[in-house]
């Protein structure tokens, strides 16, 4: 399996090239690895980053952990699947690799002991969180699970239903002896990793988005963040490196990491245009299929963007960039100079959406053409 890496040469070169890159096409990686984009990337990154060696992780258990987690992602779900998890994992690696994030936040946690070991532990937590963050996702939103009285909503009392499930189910996998690659870690270290993974994944619930970003901007002194509508890049991107943020408390460090994690979760917004559009189409398909279920169940109101008869995600991307994406990436770019590349990439895609966003008929035609090109017509 993932242990011996018997992948095609193309998969190996994709992985190697992605190590120092902001992006990887995980849909292509899935094809090149016999549908194992997450486990192949996970094993590759843990090895190449020196984490396996540093903590003497058992490679067989690590591989089994990644394979079992990967199996828990449902291919029938068009967006929240293993390729998405691999995509977020790669984005997380790219930020860690290029930004010195772990070094920046490590002192604030005040764990004591060897700083470089602590930094490596932070990286383990970030990568594990990314790999498991949508484990066993059903392609349904928290609101739907709550409103349909899904067993998961009942189990978690309607609070962060998806995120609680992803975490609890993934940690149950980690507890299995054949999957527990962290069994050899000192208890305090294992607790730290677990605590961080929980915080990062719970922070990815979009219902807490504004509160996380606002709190982060307060912690940073509100000196930056936000983007001007129309996709202009905030001026901070042109400033020198002094516009950085060093957290003073564990709480601030955690907030910083949550914002990074949110950017990684929304990482498709920074991919090259064609790849980005493919992910938006996939999200739209997932939304429409939830809307179909809502109609079947006789919901009074069909959720926003989920009714096939009305506008979908493709029609509303420009607004999403202005209100959610650019302020989020702007906040991170102000605190972490390496993230300016991500902000610039997001702004470039926003400009493409602005071009499409013109006159209504032209916009409708442009969007129909995008859907058709990707084989994802609106009314199936």
Automatic annotation (TrEMBL):
GO terms for biological process: signal transduction. InterPro entries: PDEase_catalytic_dom, PDEase_catalytic_dom_sf, PDEase_CS. Residues 3-360 form the PDEase domain. Keywords: Hydrolase, Metal-binding. The keyword Metal-binding applies. GO terms for molecular function: 3',5'-cyclic-nucleotide phosphodiesterase activity; metal ion binding. This is PDEase domain-containing protein. It comes from Zooxanthella nutricula.
